[in-house]
Design goal:
- The chain is built from eight helices and 16 strands.
- It has 293 residues and is α+β, with helices and mostly antiparallel strands.
- The chain folds into two domains: 5-49 and 70-133 and 242-282, Major capsid protein gp5 fold (2-Layer Sandwich), CATH 3.30.2400.30; 138-239 and 286-292.
- The strands form three sheets. Strands 5, 6, 7, 8, 9, 10, 11, 12 and 16 form a nine-stranded mixed sheet that branches. Strands 1, 4, 13, 14 and 15 form a five-stranded mixed sheet that branches.
- α2 (15-26) crosses α5.
- The longest helix is centred in the middle third of the chain and has 23 residues, at 101-123.
- It is globular and about 80 Å long.
Length: 293
């Protein structure tokens, strides 16, 4: 069973862990809704569905044609994401009357973990690194469309074309840079049809055609398409066990108290996460490249 981080945190009685998870998902629209599958071992080998099976009508006595889905075998390996947060014992003892220093330092480390995950979610490349593959590498070439040979200004028609690439229902999210969101908001405002909803923290989220619009700060607005170097990308994603899903070790995100350090007067807390990303069906992810301002 796949659970989001928010749902998984409800199963823990660790108040510190719950606070770290809330910090991590607060500014990440993806981590608020991305489900994670717990796996035992250091990776998962799975069959990615590339093309659905077909059916047909037959007359009496016809020869039936066999049709099965096509698959590509993929392997997603768990990666180690995290960092240590050291709290100076002197500062903790002398300044805790103003602010809980330990909570503040761990919160900042949790934010760093969230930002690194969001970056890798888009730009991750497991080749020669310790990262998992991000959306750019996971997206199949047949699921990529462009605004033009040298890019072009975003249009709603092209965005609708991107949405239509997702099969088996609408995308659960349109993920883009802030610049692309501003352009989309402008297009919607001109039509007088801006839709809004609220996330679990009460923050307002824009919708397009009923699809939540997520913002990722690591989607570059300086990509090269043809002769243009000011392009960006918009992703359409569908989440779930048969679509885009996160992978995690049992227990998911962990907050580990390492304890007192020998080399300095400080106490260390480690935030760590054994995680990865899997795309079980290539038709659940698509991207629109060459989006210019």
């Amino acid at each position: 069973m796949a659970l989001t981080l928010a749902e998984a945190s409800k199963l823990s009685n660790d108040i510190l862990l719950q606070g770290v998870i809330e910090t991590i998902i607060y500014d990440s629209p993806v981590l608020q809704v991305l489900p994670f599958i717990e796996i035992v071992g250091n990776g998962l080998t799975y069959n990615q569905e590339n093309e659905a099976a077909t059916a047909a009508f037959y007359a009496v006595g016809d020869t039936w044609a066999e049709s099965t889905p096509t698959f590509t075998q993929k392997t997603a390996t768990l990666t180690i994401l995290g960092g240590d947060a050291d709290i100076d014992n002197f500062l903790a003892a002398t300044r805790s009357n103003i602010q809980d220093l330990e909570a503040a330092v761990i919160q900042l480390k949790a934010k760093a973990v969230q930002q690194k995950f969001d970056d890798t979610f888009i730009n991750g490349d497991s080749s020669g690194t310790n990262e998992f593959d991000g959306l750019d590498l996971l997206c199949d070439a047949s699921q990529e469309i462009s605004m033009g040979a040298n890019g072009g200004t975003l249009t709603l028609t092209k965005l609708d074309e991107l949405i239509d690439l997702i099969k088996g229902g609408k995308p659960n999210m349109l993920l883009m840079s802030k610049r692309s969101r501003r352009k989309l908001t402008s297009l919607q405002r001109n039509l007088g049809s801006i839709e809004m909803t609220q996330d679990q923290f009460g923050n307002f989220v824009s919708l397009y055609d009923g699809i939540p619009i997520g913002v990722n700060d690591w989607i570059s607005d300086a990509q090269t398409v043809g002769g243009s170097t000011d392009c960006s990308t918009i992703y359409a994603l569908r989440f779930g066990e048969g679509a885009m899903c996160g992978l995690t070790s049992p227990g998911a995100l962990q907050v580990e108290r390492v304890g007192s350090l020998e080399s300095k007067d400080a106490t260390r807390t480690r935030v760590k996460w054994y995680c990865s990303l899997a795309l079980f069906n290539s038709l659940k992810l698509a991207k629109l490249i060459g989006v210019r301002d």
